[in-house]
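I am writing to request your help with a piece of structural work I have in hand. Here, with my thanks, is the record as I have it:
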Amino acid sequence: MHLLDATMLYAPASGGVARYLQEKRDWLRRHTAVRHTLLVPGPREGAGDRGETYIRTWLVLSSGYRWPMGGPSWTRAIVAKRPDLIEIGDTGPVGWAALRAARMLDVPLIAFCHSDVVRIAGERLHRSAAAAVKQYVRMLYGRCDLVIAPSAYTRDRLARWGIARTAVRPLGVDLRTFTPRARDGSLRRDFGLARSTRVLAYAGRFAPEKNLDVLLDAFRKLGPRYQLLLVGTGAPIRAQANVTVIPFLHSSAELARVLASCDAFVHAGDQETFGLILLEAMASGRAVIAPDAGAAPEIVVPGAGILVPPRDADALAAGIEAFYAQDIDAMGRYARAHVEAAYGWDTVMRSLLALYKDVRRYAASNLRRYATS
């Protein structure tokens, strides 16, 4: 089988989507005979440093992502690769180019719903924008053979958009990189912090939907005994004495060191479609404090962290204080055990590969796939 992934959600400082695609690529190479092609926007035509294939794209967004222009060139590139199955990772122009290629090749098209663009449009723009985006997404996803949701929460959101052909397949985590063995006792010293300082970490995009204003407000309420290490890139973060901003870490090993060396991971985002960083923190032997919303309750099971009411700085601060009243190392060990049991990439990828095979079998027996779309 030749699997082709195509997405615009791939940039030097991108997070979960890029890690999913690279982990998939590496796992398929090590464990299967599946041929994998990864098409992404880039600064030039040709191969990237990790085996991805760039299609030159000039327009660079403020987030570092490149907005693909010229859909026909993407369609031609996909057709030239002649894949047996195509997966798209976003609902932008790459998705429509892949749809055209799938029809030309008569191969199945799968979409992986990595982000809730309908909710983002509604919160950043207006309810009317959300309605328009919902219709747009339904037009694209409705023409796919299957839409993969990384969580039951996302599957339910898709159902509300009118998308019926869905399957839940979670993302996974690199258990060798994100491990308690990455813990480094010198982390506090590196940042000039006393050993008694209660240190928590956040890692991800500095974007409105992450509710960083709630997170920062919670730490203002907690005071100088607590320190937040804020790892990532995006909108400027206003200065705060007990917050240290760390630029985006390109190295997974360095991110694992930060996660494993803090006391816990803290998150204020309440609309995560999955939350890969939550898994990575738990795999690093650290508990998670997060809103009881989005996909977080599916990942942060009882004993592995604390869930608090969303968008409430007082509740988040209280949850952090309640965390320190418990055996934080025991919670971290339980978090690691939970991730090991359910979210290792080997477990996740075998399930995903079985799904790919099912989609191909169905497509082969259903010759009228595109007749009504």
